């Protein structure tokens, strides 16, 4: 066998490098080594008894895999040789059959350099043993590889206390494309991706869809999302409650008016046959007192919780009570006007001024309002509805309050009030002895002022339903009180 000069040169270099390693490690002069600028400082000769051990040398741990591979082949050959029960070279192993050797190789078992048993598994793989090392900063500016665990035969042993991803912080970094969305947030997937998404907040009045994680849904009217935008919460119904200060004040005022009205009615009944009661027109006075009583009772209907029946009562009663009052007043003023106008032309008494005629005229005027209410209820039945002026409101009201159709109920009474006021103006100059017309005039002037104040207040409080209903109740009761005070207090005082 011949060697090329380049092979000899490479051999010398390797030998020289090995000698330099030996000299540097044991601090001695390698026998017969060439002088270099490094080994001239060593005075003692190497004895060839120096040994590389675990005490003076840190071995590369990966060498065990090379050692295990060599030993596995050696053990397999040894087991094959022992089978033939011969010393020395076995003729049956010259040459060795690869299939036979593979069979022995698969069944080897020995203690390797790592101190653990080496063997092949059923797949022909070596034992799965791995050291897990972690490169970390142990002190500021100092980084080291640290043994933190091992994987042996399918079992992972990991010391989490030795693992850190930043000095002073043991929490590992999260390795995900997208973090889970927070409660109440929906997802928008990145185009072409199924594991990456962006999270977005549902709007002020939306919640996350119960089943679709990519959608937000709007809460229905009368409901708002909970703080986490997961469920829709019903907004409490708002209506004029009987226990509220608004309702208590209105009912107290009406209750006082009812007691006064009953007292006046009792006085009139007690003095029913006196000239004062007869001169005032007993029949129309009782109709007037009945209308005033209805006005006060209307407050208790207005403060009830809205329902279809309650809304029907309110719709019918609000206009009807006024109609009874002002139909009686119109009949009175018309009678006075006709009597004094006829007196200027002739001594003959005008027609339809008897008590019976007066009642028929008054009932005829009242029947117009009844007809209007009946037609109105047939065309548009009264209903209690939920009204939502804003997304934060949930008003339980009668439908007539929402579209202001309640003014239909007041339309006819307003016409009566205007005509009564006109008659009061026309009869203002009648003889002083017949002073009831002046009382009627003062009643109508005051009533007009009250209603002129009520209309803007009613339409200006559309979103404050308790205030709107209270204002209507107080206006009705106040109009009744003005009529009661101006027309009946002088007569009660006389009686």
TrEMBL record:
Keywords: Cell membrane, G-protein coupled receptor, Glycoprotein, Membrane, Receptor, Transducer, Transmembrane, Transmembrane helix. GO terms for molecular function: G protein-coupled receptor activity. It holds the Pfam family ANF_receptor. InterPro entries: ANF_lig-bd_rcpt, GPCR_3, GPCR_3_9-Cys_dom, GPCR_3_9-Cys_sf, GPCR_3_C, GPCR_3_CS, GPCR_3_mtglu_rcpt, mGluR. It is found in: Cell membrane. Gene3D superfamilies: 3.40.50.2300, GPCR, family 3, nine cysteines domain (2.10.50.30). The chain crosses the membrane at residues 246-272, 284-304, 316-337, 358-379, 404-427, 439-459, 465-488. GO terms for cellular component: plasma membrane. It is a multi-pass membrane protein. It comes from the Eukaryota. Residues 246-495 form the G-protein coupled receptors family 3 profile domain. G-protein coupled receptor for glutamate. Ligand binding causes a conformation change that triggers signaling via guanine nucleotide-binding proteins (G proteins) and modulates the activity of down-stream effectors. Belongs to the G-protein coupled receptor 3 family. This is G-protein coupled receptors family 3 profile domain-containing protein.
């Amino acid at each position: 066998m011949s060697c090329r000069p380049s092979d000899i040169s490479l051999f010398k270099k390797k030998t020289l490098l090995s000698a330099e390693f030996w000299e540097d490690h044991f601090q001695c002069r390698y026998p017969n080594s060439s002088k270099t600028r490094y080994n001239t400082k060593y005075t003692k000769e190497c004895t060839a008894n120096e040994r590389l051990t675990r005490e003076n040398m840190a071995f590369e741990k990966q060498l065990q895999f090379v050692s295990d591979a060599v030993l596995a082949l050696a053990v397999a050959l040894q087991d094959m040789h022992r089978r033939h029960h011969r010393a020395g070279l076995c003729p049956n192993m010259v040459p060795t059959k690869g299939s036979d050797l593979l069979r022995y190789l698969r069944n080897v078992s020995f203690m390797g350099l790592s101190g653990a048993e080496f063997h092949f598994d059923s797949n022909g793989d070596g034992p799965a043993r791995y050291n897990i090392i972690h490169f970390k900063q142990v002190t500021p500016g100092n980084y080291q590889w640290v043994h933190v665990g091992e994987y042996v035969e399918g079992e992972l042993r990991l010391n989490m206390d030795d693992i850190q991803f930043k000095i002073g912080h043991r929490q590992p970094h999260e390795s995900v494309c997208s973090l889970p969305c927070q409660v109440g947030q929906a997802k928008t997937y990145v185009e072409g991706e199924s594991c990456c998404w962006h999270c977005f907040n549902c709007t002020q009045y939306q919640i996350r869809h119960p089943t679709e994680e990519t959608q937000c849904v709007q809460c229905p009217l009368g409901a708002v999302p909970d703080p986490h935008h997961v469920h829709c919460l019903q907004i409490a119904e708002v209506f004029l409650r009987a226990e509220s200060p608004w309702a208590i004040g209105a009912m107290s005022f009406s209750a006082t008016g009812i007691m006064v009205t009953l007292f006046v009615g009792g006085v009139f009944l007690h003095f029913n046959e006196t000239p004062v009661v007869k001169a005032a027109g007993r029949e129309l006075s009782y109709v007037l007192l009945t209308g005033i009583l209805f006005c006060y009772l209307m407050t208790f209907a207005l403060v009830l919780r809205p329902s279809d029946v309650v809304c029907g009562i309110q719709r019918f009663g609000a206009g009807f009570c006024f109609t009874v009052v002002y139909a009686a007043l119109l009949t009175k003023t018309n009678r006075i006007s006709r009597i004094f106008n006829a007196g200027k032309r002739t001594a003959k008494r005008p027609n339809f001024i008897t008590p019976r005629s007066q009642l028929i005229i008054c009932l005829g005027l009242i029947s117009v309002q009844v007809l209007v209410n009946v037609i109105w209820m047939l065309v548009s039945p009264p209903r209690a509805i939920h009204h939502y002026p804003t997304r934060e409101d949930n008003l339980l009201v009668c439908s007539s309050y929402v579209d202001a159709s309640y003014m239909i109920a007041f339309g006819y009474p307003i016409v009566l009030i205007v005509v009564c006021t006109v008659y009061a103006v026309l009869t203002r100059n009648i003889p002083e002895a017949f002073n009831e017309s002046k009382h009627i005039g003062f009643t109508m002037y005051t009533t007009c002022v009250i209603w002129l104040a009520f209309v803007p207040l009613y339409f200006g409080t559309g979103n404050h339903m308790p205030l709107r209903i209270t204002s209507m109740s107080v206006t009705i009761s106040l109009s009744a009180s003005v009529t009661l005070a101006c027309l009946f207090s002088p007569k009660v005082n006389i009686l």
